[in-house]
Amino acid sequence: MEKAIQLDIITPQGTVFSDKVVAVTLPGSLAPFQVLYNHAPILSTLESGILKVILPDLASRYYVIGEGFVEVLHNHATVLVERIVPAEEIDPEAAAARLRQARAQVEMARTRQELQKARRELHEAEIAFRAARLARQLVEEGERMS
Predict the structure, then answer these.
(1) Model-level pTM?
(2) Cα–Cα distance between 63 and 21 in angstroms, integer?
(3) Segment 9-25, tens digit of pLDDT
């Protein structure tokens, strides 16, 4: 595990993850990016999206995060976000229903403000749906291997 980085994920409620990881993929404001061992120093804004962690045993974990920031310096990545939800805690059926409802809200929007709000909810619903599917795939792969 010599080529690991320290990852700390912090919300206003406190630290929710603090451990060594092989890599972390983050939803940057311009594009997703991955942080590996010896990554160049960076300070970046994050969009709502899916954060992927690869643990030293090469297992993956997915999280849905809200907007925030990341600082990478000397093999230490600090992620500051407003909210975080482990993907395995998202009910896939509820996420699918939320996605259908969000699509309908976009179609029914009549004003610019309603459309903007509906599109934001659609974006959040799509993220949750994708994360739930990724978590389900990990569980299914684990079941096949055992």
Answers:
(1) 0.88
(2) 14
(3) 999 999 999 999 999 99
CB 52 within 8 A of CB 41: no
> Does the domain at residues 5-87 carry the CATH identifier 2.60.15.10?
yes
**Tell me: the pLDDT tens digits for 50-107?**
999 999 999 999 999 999 999 999 999 999 999 999 999 999 999 999 999 999 999 9
Ramachandran class of 120: left when φ > 0, alpha when ψ lies in -120 to 50, beta otherwise: alpha
Interatomic CA distance for residues 73 and 78, integer angstroms: 9
> Phi and psi (nearest 5°) for 64?
-95, 125
Task: Sketch the domain layout of the chain as residue ranges.
Answer: 5-87, 90-145
Helix, strand, coil in percent for the chain, rounding step 5: 35, 40, 25
